[in-house]
Design a protein that fits this description.
With 240 residues, the chain is an alpha/beta fold. It has eight helices and eight strands. An eight-stranded mixed beta sheet has the order 1-7-8-6-5-2-3-4, with helices on both faces. Helix 1 crosses helix 6, helix 2 packs antiparallel against helix 6 and helix 3 packs across helix 4. The chain starts with a strand and ends with a strand. 46% of the residues are buried. The model has no long low-confidence stretch (mean pLDDT 96).
């Protein structure tokens, strides 16, 4: 297996994009804790409120619960700004409206780095990826270019959102083709606490579901690779 490069940290601002509350907590949040401790500014953008994620709870009740759990999990790792696009959980579609919404947020936040979950059909472990994840990941990839082109989504200009071509790195977690690594050994406990904030969602999954600690140990474990730290976030990263 090829040695992963260390993900660069000579940047100041990042935007993390996900389909649902709890998506960012499966690994990315541990890296966010590392970066906010360095003084970097990180913001979260969620496509949905996760209202279809709890089988025994009506979406009207689940949406505010999951939104609040996301805000609590974000606060654990030093993130104050958490925004929601309000798309319908489970039926997010890749297309121009989603690209436009993401490009608008990139122009508004003007990040150096954009992170999202993988858009590929399978995860690193071989499991099948979910439809919303794929749509949001792919739209994020395209929106980074859209954000820098003033002639795409010209209504964003009318809204006062000038083009932003300053995204230097675009990275995807959970990819079967990782290229870079972030050592999150020192902030692993913060990552666990961030995931634990999703209490009602995790409780609904049942006692047979792995604990947050066990899940993150599986996702962030070094897999006996001596080149990696005890806990490592693997990213498919692209320099722009």
């Amino acid at each position: 297996m090829a040695t992963l490069e260390t993900f660069p940290e000579d940047w100041q601002t990042a935007l993390c994009v996900a389909a649902h509350p709890d998506d960012l907590e499966y690994g990315i949040a541990a890296a966010v804790a590392r970066w906010t401790a360095q003084g970097k500014t990180v913001t979260y953008l969620l496509a949905t409120r996760g209202e279809a994620g709890i089988d025994g709870m009506h979406p009207d009740e689940a949406a505010p619960v999951r939104e609040q759990e996301e805000r609590e999990g974000a606060a654990v790792v030093g993130v104050d700004a958490v925004e929601f696009l309000g798309l319908t959980d489970g039926t997010v579609e890749y297309g121009l409206p989603l690209r436009r919404a993401l490009a608008g947020e990139i122009r508004r936040r003007r990040p150096d780095v954009v992170l999202a979950g993988t858009y590929r059909e399978t995860f690193a472990g071989g499991g099948l990826n979910q439809a919303d994840h794929r749509a949001v990941g792919l739209a994020t990839l395209d929106a980074c270019a859209d954000a820098g082109n003033r002639w795409i989504f010209t209504d964003l200009l009318d809204a006062g959102l000038e083009p932003w071509s300053g995204v230097r790195w675009l990275a995807f977690a959970g990819s079967p083709e990782p290229s870079h690594a972030v050592d999150v050994s020192d902030t692993f406990e913060s990552g666990v606490a961030s995931l634990e904030a999703h209490r009602r969602y995790l409780d609904a999954l049942g006692p047979e579901y792995p604990t947050p600690r066990r899940l993150l140990e599986m996702i962030l474990g070094s897999q006996d690779d001596p080149e990696l730290g005890e806990h490592t976030l693997r990213l498919e990263a692209h320099q722009r």
